Amino acid sequence: EVQLVESGGGLVQPGGSLRLSCAASGITFSNYWMHWVRQAPGKGLVWVSRINSDASNTGYADSVKGRFTISRDNAKSTLYLLVNSLRAEDTATYYCATGYNHAMDVWGRGTTVTVSS
Amino acid sequence: DIQMTQSPSSLSAFVGDRVTITCRASQSISSFLNWYQQKPGKAPKLLIYVASSLQSGVPSRFSGSGSGTDFTLTISSLQLEDFATYYCQQSYSIPFTFGPGTKVDIK
């Protein structure tokens, strides 16, 4: 069974940083492009970032460009999102998802980031 | 950036009804359009990819159509478990934008 498990969320002050992780199992992780998507409380889905299978190509939403960094460790089957210079508007549940057939086909349960003083 | 719109933003329907949700892109995205279902407190679930391909395990009452800028998701006979919020998403170009969602609830 394919499983993605996010971790690393928490309460952080404005300007702070976190490293989110997404551990994959049940798949050959190195074959998949991966995405991060977030959802603020009571709001819709927002795509955040994508990385290709060998980490040679990344992409970001304008709202996080320069502050967030996506990376992966294929040997550990783990995806990361380093989130810096956090703002109140970054408060959200962050989901990781596998990219396949030009879609996001398997999703984790999410990890919650709360930015507040 | 490509903007995605959905209509309606919400709808009420009976079990057994045929339901259609529309998604429109601000520019042509060929067939790079996906549909997701999300229930409260749960992660999204992929229903349809590249406009009309049914994801494995998704009931055949769900179907998608369209190309270019205009797309539809149809539920042929609404079931209790289909009451949820539905999002379209374009995968034509970064940023991979989502529509604002359509909430389907019980009439």
Rg of Cα set of chain B: 13 Å
Secondary structure: number of strands of chain A = 11
Uncertain runs of chain A:
none
The best one-word shape of chain B is globular
Structural class of chain A, by secondary structure, is mainly beta
Strand content of chain B: over 45%
Describe the global form of chain A: globular
Global structural class of chain B: mainly beta
Could you state the oligomeric state of the chains shown? heterodimer
Largest sheet of chain A: 7 strands, mixed
Mean pLDDT rating of chain B:
97
* Order of secondary-structure elements of chain A: EEEEEEEEEEE
Q: Strand order, main sheet of chain B: write it out.
A: 2-10-9-4-5-6
Description:
The complex is a heterodimer of chains A (117) and B (107). By secondary structure, chain A is an all-beta fold. Chain A is built from no helices and 11 strands. In chain A, the strands form 2 sheets. In chain A, strands 2, 4, 5, 6, 9, 10 and 11 form a 7-stranded mixed beta sheet that branches. Chain A has a 4-stranded antiparallel beta sheet with strand order 1-3-8-7, with no helix packed on it. Chain A is globular, with a radius of gyration of 13 Å. The model of chain A has no long low-confidence stretch (mean pLDDT 97). A 6-stranded mixed beta sheet of chain B has the order 2-10-9-4-5-6, with no helix packed on it. A 4-stranded antiparallel beta sheet of chain B has the order 1-3-8-7, with no helix packed on it. Chain B contains no helices and 10 strands. Chain B is globular, with a radius of gyration of 13 Å. The model of chain B has no long low-confidence stretch (mean pLDDT 97). Chain B is 0% helix and 48% strand. Chain B has strands at 4-7, 10-13, 19-25, 33-38, 45-49, 53-54, 62-67, 70-75, 85-90, 102-106. The A-B interface holds A 35, 37, 44-47, 50, 59-62, 95, 101-105, 107-110 and B 1, 32, 34, 36, 38, 42-46, 49-50, 53, 55, 87, 89, 91, 94-101.
